[in-house]
Write a structure and sequence with these properties.
This protein has 137 residues and is of the alpha+beta class. It contains three helices and five strands, in the order βααββββα.
């Protein structure tokens, strides 16, 4: 794992799978969302507090996903989060869903672009400076 990469554990529950016990494809996006939320929390930012104090929300602008191998019921997976770029009102992440003792087996990879928006107008809004500095550490 790279020094600037965040890793979050995810257990595959029965509800995450199809009738064959394989992770349903859309659930990988949920796993990635949870990991980004935990990454942000690890940096000291709670999304509900950002809405209240800075009147901002984050929305997915685009996703590119590659499904490589199936995740299965009851597996312990890990989701990585790596900030690729941060602009004035956007962020781009590289994410991977990993399996195995050393988290080396890639099951799914993705590039996720996030927009920072005004919570009331849904128009682009600058990422607060204190947050911008912290996420780029």
């Amino acid at each position: 794992m790279a020094a600037n990469e965040f890793l979050w554990p995810i257990r595959v529950y029965y509800e995450d799978t199809d009738s064959g016990g394989v992770v349903y494809y859309a659930n990988y996006l949920k796993f990635m969302e949870r990991a980004r939320t935990e990454w942000l929390r690890s940096k000291g930012f709670e999304q509900d507090a950002l809405i209240a104090s800075d009147k901002i929300i984050f929305a997915v602008k685009s996703v590119q996903v590659d499904y490589l191998k199936p995740g299965r019921f009851n597996q312990q997976l890990f989701v990585s989060v790596k900030l690729r770029t941060a602009g004035k009102a956007s962020m781009e992440f590289e994410q991977k869903v990993l399996f195995g003792n050393e988290h080396k087996e890639e099951l799914c990879t993705g590039i996720v672009k996030i927009a920072c928006l005004d919570a009331e107008t849904f128009r682009p809004k600058a990422i607060p400076q204190v947050m911008f500095r912290e996420i780029n550490r």
